[in-house]
Amino acid sequence: MIASVSYDTANNGTYVEIGNFNLLGTAMFTKEYEVDPLGASGFTGRQTDASGNQLPVGIAVPPGYLDPTIDSFNLTIATPTVGGSTLEGTTTPPQFAGPVFEFSFTGSNFAAGTEHQGLFEITIKYEEGTALEPRWFDTVNNRWSKVGILDGSVQYDYPQPGYVTFKVSHLTQFAVLKNVIGTSSGLRCDFNGDSIIDDCDIAALIARNQLAFAGVSADQITAANINTIAGDLLKSQTFTVTTAPNASIDDLNSSGTLDDSDLAFLIGWIQMKNAGLTSAEITESAVNTISSGLLGSLSGTLSKFPGETVSR
């Protein structure tokens, strides 16, 4: 299927094609939205169902980012086909964990995958799998890339289960891929890479939360910056933070954010491990009971266990 972008350059009703590109499958949903590029709150476009109800899939653009000449936005959802595409840096064809989503603004070159200085917030649907990664399609090189997807911004099951939200500096076709080669594995809440969940990991999460609560931007909450703080919090041990806590992986109550509740769940789980229980013997309800005693304002319940194997 070929989609084209046309633009009324002379504002006289005559549209000139300024580009075209291949969709990667049969379109299941397509909709055009009117855009106020000068809107004080920016622009948000979401998928709707047959009854007109708004769904999570869509895009959020910060105010002042769109060119004043842009007047519409198109969202297309398609069944994926591999074609001749590959994973960036490999000759491996992609495996899809859900549909392909395409976002384009008329009168712009966004659809070409050009890098921009601002960040689009994208939400797409995905299916369960292993070694998952959201990727954007590089139409020039016919490959699926992750360059420009902000580290630490990827949140799975947000704003609700089955969806992933992330920020990216490119705008084109997006999909969640599975069995991605090169995706490293580790343990949930193991932030120093020793395959043990203990006080060092508590210190790392405390340090990460301190940076976030202080208003430090996500791209500056790095393992190195966390390590600087964590070492002072636990001077009785020598360790190095190698992995920054990630809301898409280490969010223990599936709230979409990392905060004191996740810290309380982590401490509760570690207390049970230190009491001699195996991971298989530790129950969700038991951790919830301990954690609620640690934090009166505890939010939610434990839904993801520390120590589980994850892909980072």
Protein described:
Helices cover 18% and strands 27% of the residues. It is α+β, with helices and mostly antiparallel strands and 312 residues long. Strand 10 (133-138) and strand 11 form a beta hairpin. The strands form four sheets. It has a seven-stranded mixed sheet with strand order 3-6-8-14-10-11-7, with no helix packed on it. It has five helices and 16 strands.
**Whole-number count of domains:** 2
Average pLDDT, rounded to a whole number, is 84
What is the strand tally?
Answer: 16
Low-confidence stretches: 1-10, 15-23, 111-117
C-alpha-based Rg, rounded = 22 Å
Per the CATH scheme, the topology name of the largest domain is Chondroitinase Ac, Chain A, domain 3
Q: Please trace the helix and strand order, writing H or E for each element.
A: EEEEEEEEEEEEEEEHHHHHE
The amount of helix comes to: 10-25%
Gross morphology is globular
CATH class of the largest domain: Mainly Beta
User: Strand order within the widest sheet?
Assistant: 3-6-8-14-10-11-7
Structural class: alpha+beta
Number of helices: 5
From the 3D coordinates, which CATH architecture of the largest domain would you assign? Sandwich
Amino-to-carboxy terminus distance: 34 Å
Which percent band covers the strand fraction? 25-35%
For the biggest sheet, the summary is: 7 strands, mixed
